[in-house]
Write a structure and sequence with these properties.
Layout lengths: L1 E4 L3 E6 L2 E6 L4 E4 L2 H9 L4 E2 H7 L5 H13 L3 E3 L6 H7 L8 H8 L8 H14 L24 H8 L13 H11 L4 E5 L3 E5 L11 E7 L8 E6 L4 E4 L8 H4 L11 E8 H7 L5 H22 L3 E5 L4 H8 L6 E10 L23 H7 L1
């Protein structure tokens, strides 16, 4: 029988305890000095007899007990025993992405979100004793007054009008509207051929190294002429492909504690195929580029929807594993990273940042606008 330390182990101090954490399996436990010593010895495959000779103070049965516990917690791999699926999947990640990006990816999945009302109440109590940080950094040095930004043009109008909507009208959106949203946000606009790199996509939003790691899946709820259900968007062919997702869930099952999105016409989930970025960038920082790319795409989507007088939103409150199970993706080689959606504006509401109310916040102009008006 031979043993090897899992390559997905991260160790850190937490409240006075030294914690072993296998991010690939989600198992974590406080460690004893003996466990750490055994793990250190098992950098490569080691037979139990080798460990016994190294650890002379331990009897055979006692050593076996410790080895069994470490295997059960997935901190050690044992020859002849299947490697957990998560470990196999993360082993496919570029070594430069492990453990930093892999640990962050695994540790931030399937967060338990509290209800919005309780979160707001807690933050209001917190603000009484510890106000939030200043929204702006104080400027220093001599000020140079700038002319007012141009206020003409459709893009400017869309930028000014963009809001995160949490109320929606009952009307269906059209296939043409959905096609425009998908095509202008995720669609390939051109292919460019680069020597040594082959064919690379050009889209309306930037992507690090033109790797375009993001895929788009549409959960159609209220689109004229389209059946309800999940679809994968092909950005080159500009086509939707129905997925065999049998279970019908509410949007709030995918976006926990956010029931106001249940009436949206379409939910768009963005996933990342990590190998695309890993192929070019062999270091963990590139994980940031994927999240940034998703942000670019979400803003493009919201601006396009706003220009069409629709009501868009974006959210990172994701039930990761629920979404990934329904889309039949493993959450490691391909994983959900962001969500957007759209519907019609409710009648008679010009701006609805909060659900279930027509109340709007008090608006105050920035200093430059007040200066311009004078």
């Amino acid at each position: 029988m031979r043993y090897r330390r899992t390559p997905h182990l991260v160790c850190h101090w937490d409240q006075g305890q030294f914690i072993l954490h296998n991010y690939a399996t989600g198992r974590r436990a406080p460690a004893t000095p003996l466990a750490v010593e055994i793990l250190d010895l098992c950098e490569d495959w080691r037979a139990r007899s080798d460990l016994e000779s190294e650890l002379r103070a331990l009897s055979g049965p006692l050593l076996q007990n410790v080895l069994t516990v470490l295997v059960e917690h997935t901190f050690l791999e044992q020859s002849g025993k299947p490697v957990p699926a998560g470990s196999r999947s993360y082993s496919e990640w570029d070594k430069g992405w492990r453990p930093a990006a892999a640990f962050f990816h695994a540790s931030t999945k399937d967060v338990r979100f509290a209800a919005a009302d309780s979160v707001d109440a807690r933050l209001r109590r917190k603000a009484e004793s510890k106000p939030p940080p200043a929204p702006l950094k104080a400027s220093t040095g001599k000020a140079v007054a700038l002319s007012a930004p141009s206020s003409s043009g459709e893009l400017t109008e869309s930028l000014h009008a963009r809001r995160t909507w949490r109320q929606f009208g009952a009307a269906a959106i059209s296939q043409e509207q959905l096609a425009t949203l998908l095509g202008l946000t995720w669609g390939v606009q051109q292919w460019m051929h680069v020597d040594g790199f082959g064919r690379m996509a050009l889209k309306t939003s930037p992507s690090g190294g033109a790797r375009h790691s993001i895929e788009a899946y549409a959960c159609v709820r209220n689109v004229k002429g389209l059946r309800k259900g999940w679809y994968h968007y092909n950005p080159d062919r500009h086509t939707l492909h129905a997925l065999p997702v049998r279970r019908r869930r509410k949007v709030s099952d995918y976006l926990p504690t956010q029931p106001w999105y249940d009436e949206v016409a379409v939910l768009i989930v963005m996933t990342a195929v990590f190998a695309r970025a890993q192929w070019r960038y062999g270091y963990a920082r590139a994980y940031r580029s994927i999240l940034t790319e998703a942000g670019h795409l979400a803003q493009t989507f919201c601006l396009v929807a706003t220009s069409m007088d629709l009501a868009p939103f974006c959210s990172m409150a994701l039930a990761d594993s629920v979404i990934e199970k329904d889309l039949d993706i493993d959450g490691v080689s391909e994983s959900v990273v962001y969500a957007t959606g759209v519907g019609h504006k409710p009648e008679g509401v010009a701006w609805a940042p909060w659900p279930n109310t027509t109340r709007t916040p008090r608006i105050e102009s920035p200093t430059w606008k007040r200066r311009t008006l004078k």
